[in-house]
Amino acid sequence: MRRVLFAGLAMAVGLVGTAAFAVDDPILTRKKLMQANGGAAGAMQAMIKGETQFNAAVAQSALRTFNAVAYSVGDYFPEGSGEGDTRAAPAIWEDMAGFQTALANFQQATDAARGSEPQSVEDLQAAMGQIGQTCGGCHENYRLEN
Asked: Which of 27, 59, 114, 142 has the most beta carbons within 10 angstroms of its beta carbon?
């Protein structure tokens, strides 16, 4: 239980700390934002799988993390930031309109999930369904596999 709570707090702190990277390194900022999503997903999956006890506050924190990332990550794909140590696919810059649509879908999914305020594992599973679909769709088209 404490581990999940600390994971939720770490996600929030990680998002705040990410702002310091944004000006100088959009690739690092994107990575930090995706790591925050990974931490949020891990906390939620642990509850869904029964590895940790369901905690509504942690679930809501994780959903807020997804929502914050959904509304901020798109700012860190400036022209030329597809080169270097990144998993961002060239398709992002080749089809920026499609990428923006994928981000808008992610935003809508996280808005709905955040507003659902899950009170049980079943509620959390339902909230995560659409988020998972939007994440998968974006990763399939706009993320390189390493």
From this structure: 59
* DSSP-derived 3-state class of residue 143: strand
Rg of the chain on CA atoms, in Å: 15
How does pLDDT run across 16-35, given as a tens digit for each residue? 554 544 558 999 999 999 99
Q: Mind listing the pLDDT tens digit for each residue in 125-136?
A: 999 998 999 999
Give which of 80, 99, 87, 83 is closest to 138, Cα–Cα: 99
- The string of DSSP letters for 69-94 reads HHHHGGGG--TTTTSSS--B-THHHH
Q: For 5-14, 25-34, 61-70, which range has the lowest pLDDT when averaged over its residues?
A: 5-14
| Structural domains of the chain ordered from first start | 2-142 (1.20.120.10)
Long-range contacts formed by 59-62: CB under 8 A, 24+ apart: 59/118, 59/124, 59/127, 60/114, 60/117, 60/118, 61/8, 61/9, 61/11, 61/12, 62/8, 62/11
CA distance 124 to 92: 30
Residue 95 is classified by DSSP as T
In this prediction, residue 145 carries a pLDDT of 87
- Considering the entire predicted model, what is its pTM? 0.82
